[in-house]
Amino acid sequence: MQILLNCLSLTSFYLCFALGLALVFGVMRIINFAHGEFFMIGAYATYLCISTLSPQLGGPVAWAIGAIVAAAVTGLLGLVLHRIMVVPLGDKPLAIFISTLALSYVIQTIVFQIFGPVGLSIAPPMRGVVNFGGAILPASRLVVIGVAAVLAAGLWVFLMRSEAGRRIRAVAQNPRGALLQGIRTEKVGRLTLILGSSIAGICGAAMGPISQISPFMGAGALWKAFIIIIVGGIGNIWGAVAAAAIFGVLDTLMSQFGAGRFLALTSAAVMLFVLSVKPSGLFGEKE
């Protein structure tokens, strides 16, 4: 039971982080290398909100406000990114990739200068542990599981049930066909980038209380997220969900049995194996 809870907790984090990245790439066919820094910005926004509001409103309310602020700030960053980089560079994905890489270093440097290199701790919105049939789970990790479930379900409902979601799916499947049908692909791209960036910010708010936050916390998470969306099928959101579950279980079992030092090596090996057998990923489609 304990291993199952650990698998669920780690899968939730992988899913939470990879969702936004998979959404942006699936629709816009661009890699936002600053996604990890948006995740970091979300964590710092939550830290500031909790530090300021917690004495008056209490930890849970302050954290909830922090998560909303994190989503708003990173969503705004996504809007700015779309306006100043994606639109001007148009259909040059390599140039956009390099631009977002440069943006990630700029954001890291700014946060480094403001907060310094020392890691900071965020007070968890829920304290203590929860007992499930003899297995225990820190309440803060239960928050991450809940946030990941709400994000995945909310994204599914949005994409499948709303008019904006249908347009996003149309652009993801056939951008040229969607354009011929009168769908404004630039507007869809802007909405997608705002949505994906906001998901990164909420993920930062959820994960911040679990580990120390620092200007460099996004890099490691981004590396794992890339592997997840490649294995799942680049741009396939539901493939990312499946791949997050696969690596959540695999990484938990390896850590449980003392092979944690081989996690990065194993993840890379799994990715290379999947690419050699099915280059489009487990759930990807040939283009």
From TrEMBL:
One of its GO terms (biological process) is amino acid transport. InterPro entries: ABC_transp_permease (IPR001851), BCAA_transport_permease (IPR052157). GO terms for cellular component: plasma membrane. The keyword Ubl conjugation does not apply. GO terms for molecular function: transmembrane transporter activity. This is Branched-chain amino acid ABC transporter permease. Belongs to the binding-protein-dependent transport system permease family. LivHM subfamily. Keywords: Amino-acid transport, Cell membrane, Membrane, Transmembrane, Transmembrane helix, Transport. It is found in: Cell membrane. The chain crosses the membrane at residues 12-31, 38-55, 61-82, 94-115, 135-159, 191-210, 222-250, 262-283. It is a multi-pass membrane protein. It comes from Mesorhizobium sp. WSM2240.
